[in-house]
Amino acid sequence: MNSQPGNNNAVLIAGPTASGKSALALELAQKTGGVIINADSMQVYRDLRVITARPTPEEEALVPHRLYGHVDAAVNFSAGAWVVDAAKVLSEVRAQRRPPIFVGGSGLYFKALTRGLSAVPPIPVDVREAVRARLERDGVEALHAELARRDGAAAERLRPRDRTRIARALEVVEATGRSLSDWHRDGLPPLLPPGTFSALFLEPDRDALYARIDARFDAMLKAGALQEVERLAARKLDCLLPAMKAHGVPALMAHLKGEIALEEAAAIGRADTRHYAKRQFTWFRHQLPEFAWVKPEAAGEWLSTVIPGWSEGPDPESRDSPMCNRTS
């Protein structure tokens, strides 16, 4: 357990999708005057509010929310870019002497926050476009073979059909003349060193979580997720962009093209999200052991050990706020 957070210390709330992270963060922010900072790699995109279960405008109006919907879907946003943005926001929040509350499910974002990140420089646009043109022309197998010649360690680590990561590794070699492994050895320091944060991973019952994931996906469809994806599809963006691979987006786009029925697209979206939740459990357990694993019903007790006054309970108004029914 890390030291108790004061005005400038941070609280990190992670967990699988639909575990109740956003609700807990909002309750905590209302009680402490904190600022919620997004640590979810898909909720950064302004094009994807419904399909990523971003906080609603009503929820965002209750307390300050930062780094939500601030990136266009056409941008190949990365963990490195997020760290730059997070550093600016963290500095502002600390200057205001308000508690920063990082919330999300993207393990790499939290790892970058607490462990640092490799110092890979930005990749020039012409290099990225050239690699992607070769990917479309020659296929992923050819690029994986090329990567094996130029960065054997990366090629061995990646699946032969992982288009995005293979392209990324080749871009780095092309642009810098160094492998990703080389860059990973020369990392950037963490924004939150040990002792400056308390970290919680919500651990709901698996079966109950998967049922909530299914119900939430159906609710998102009723709330306009299909129309949101239709607007995104109309932009005709590169299919390798991160926003184009958000859970549910590829399947719903296939439906919009007439390739599959809506029922099948919804089933794929629900299954993909359940599989992602399973991977989140595994990733955090192995990669970030400094996170305390807590059942959602025990989160208040855990917070009372690191937040002075939390045991008194949240402000009465928060019990009637829209977040009480959230499951993100």
Protein model, in words:
- This protein has 328 residues and is of the alpha/beta class.
- The protein folds into 2 domains: 10-118 and 189-322, Rossmann fold; 125-185, Histone, subunit A (Orthogonal Bundle).
- It contains 14 helices and 8 strands.
- It has helices spanning 21-32, 57-62, 79-95, 107-115, 125-138, 140-150, 152-157, 163-176, 180-185, 206-222, 225-233, 249-256, 262-287, 299-306; strands spanning 10-14, 35-38, 65-66, 100-103, 117-118, 187-188, 197-202, 292-294.
- The strands form 2 sheets. The protein has a 6-stranded parallel sheet, sandwiched between helices. Strands 5-6 form a two-stranded antiparallel ribbon.
- The protein is globular, with a radius of gyration of 20 Å.
- 40% of the residues are buried.
- Mean pLDDT is 89; it is low at 1-7 and 312-325.
Strand content: 5-15%
Distance between the termini: 25 Å
Oligomer: single chain
- Report low-confidence residues grouped into runs of 5 or more: 1-7, 312-325
Count the strands? 8
Helix percentage range? 40-55%
Write the layout of secondary structure elements.
Blueprint: E1 10-14, H1 21-32, E2 35-38, H2 57-62, E3 65-66, H3 79-95, E4 100-103, H4 107-115, E5 117-118, H5 125-138, H6 140-150, H7 152-157, H8 163-176, H9 180-185, E6 187-188, E7 197-202, H10 206-222, H11 225-233, H12 249-256, H13 262-287, E8 292-294, H14 299-306
Parallel strand pairs: 1-4, 1-7, 2-3, 2-4, 7-8
Antiparallel strand pairs: 5-6
Helix pairs in contact: 3-4, 5-6, 5-8, 6-8, 10-13, 11-12, 12-13
